[in-house]
Amino acid sequence: MPRFALWIEYDGGPFAGWQAQADQPSVQGALEAALARLDPGFAAGARVAAAGRTDAGVHATAQVAHADLVRDWDPFRLSEALNWHLKPAPVAVLAAARVGDDFHARFSATGRRYLFRLLSRRAPATHDRGRVWQVTHPLDLAAMQAGAAHLLGRHDFTTFRSTMCQAASPIKTLDRIEITAHPVPRGTEYRFHLAARSFLHNQVRSIVGTLERVGQGAWPPARVAEALAARDRAACGPVCPPSGLYLSGVDYPDDPFAGISVAGPSPGG
To answer: How far is the C-alpha of 248 from the C-alpha of 176, rounded, in Å?
Structure first.
């Protein structure tokens, strides 16, 4: 059975997350329903595997999934047909690529990247409602950057993971955490860029929620290091809402979408 990698973008607002659920809409469910209309293998109950199981309300600009199909599709025709059958769900297949049987969207990945968008302004968000976390108070960029610096590298992130997290170990290596400020009308958007081989459940949202407390002046930057060292969920700041979080990249030893003619970088680019 030919295997295809799919580069997927979606608005997570209407979904209960990536993973298929019996009684709630999911991104996986929408994609599998579209595939079932195109390929008889999915009518028999085949599944789609993804690089990351995003939570309810979390978005993606570069989710990667793979599916085993019966028909050996032309990749461009497959992506076009899937997009037709995905309507009107806010899910798009940006590209499809034929891959080897040893490719696995989750287990072959060597890194994942997330973007979190935090809007600071008094006027309500309009075009970005549901796509950012908005606060009405000003934030100190330098203080948040100083706090974030304590989290780089290999640590026990027990403080910054959900009590429901099923990962075998809380020890992770955070390869990148960068915060940038971008002017918007009557306010500022802060963008948090994080990269690691893998993340714990709620790790990014816990980190951003904690750093927001630093930015508003409720915590000094050094308290982030103290929270990390505590290895105690109670030491964490508030977990921020999912609306500002995006899965923005997945890295592989060989990028399955390299060389495909699409505007902008591939998920691993």
So the answer is: 13
Instruction: Enter the DSSP assignment of 87.
Output: T
Q: From the candidates 11, 23, 39, 55, which is the catalytic residue?
A: 55
- CATH 3.30.930.10 given to domain 3-108: no
Provide the annotated binding site for substrate.
114
**pLDDT per residue over 52-108, tens digit each?**
999 999 999 999 999 999 999 999 999 999 999 999 999 999 999 999 999 999 999
Name the residue among 198, 227, 199, 203 with its Cα closest to residue 213: 227
Q: Which CATH number fits domain 111-249: 3.40.50.300, 3.30.70.2120, 3.30.70.660, 3.90.228.20?
A: 3.30.70.660
Active-site residue flag, 55: yes
Q: What pTM did the predictor assign?
A: 0.94
pLDDT digits over 124-140, tens only?
999 999 999 999 999 99
